[in-house]
Fold this protein.
Amino acid sequence: FQKTNKDRFQIFCTSVLNILGVLCKISIEKTREIITKYFQNIKKITIIRQLSSSRKTQLEFIEKLLYNYIRAATVTLSENEQIDDDEFNDLLNLHIELLINQGYKEKILYWLKQGLPYPLEEILDNLLQNDVIDAATYVYQRLGNNVAALNLLLNHLRTIFLGISKENPNYDEFSKYLNQCISICQSSCEQVEQVNPIGSSERLALAKIQNDNEELWFTLLKKVNSFFDDLKSDTEGKYSEKFREYLSMNFQNLFKKMCKYVRIKIIMDKYNSPEFKEKIEFNEFKKMLIQLIHSSSIFETILTKGKKVFDTNIINLFSLFVNTSVKEKLVSHL
């Protein structure tokens, strides 16, 4: 039939193409066979549109096409696989929508990292409305909004915390998102450290970014510290002693990492501010300050960075000052 009358065969293919959705309802497998066997020369985007009444099959064909686009760096796309920019943008939007609707939220982050030009600002609302936290955080970071990314994770971390109990410890999930928060703070600071400003205006702009990045750490610190308030008000014994120790350990670990990126003077100034004192648990902060004083690695970092600015004599004086007066004064104060 295909060989004997091409015109009639083309009419037949067009008719079948128009009822692909109906055929999928009868048999997805048979419809897939028909498409593979007879529609090789039909544009893929046309086939995908006709599958709108069978979302699962539509998703399958979209991903086959996208895999070919990912491979396009080494393999030339066929003519029927090529799509103009506007159609491709719509296709990528549809892909995210289908992943959410078909219950594949966990796959979205993988696809976003494949180098395809997803319209990030357009898909962000969809991700937020459907609580696709990991992917939405990634999109915020790609858009350069680390503050929004951190706040999104902190709100989710709060939700996880409220769901923890003796019967449902869920430590792994809590650690996962706390580490993601720390990672955002670290990467923000490391990006600034790699910049070498030239003029005074660039230095001022860089100082502003540095201050904003340091503020990310304090936002995280205050949020984690707020969990201790919940522990204090836990009169029903919801949280186990093991979790209290676990939280304290994570709080101190967070502070250690923070000290590698935030200037100690800023930490002390912030601690002395009324706004900060009201929100930080003194006992936990006390433990961290003692660790800060006795942590040789932190002082080693200070001295290493100091070598870039101070001459040897000043470094020696600074080292002596740190190891004697500061330690004595702070320990006695605590």
In short: The mean pLDDT is 78. The first helix runs from residue 6 to 18. The two ends are 92 Å apart (CA to CA). The chain is about 75% helix and 0% strand.
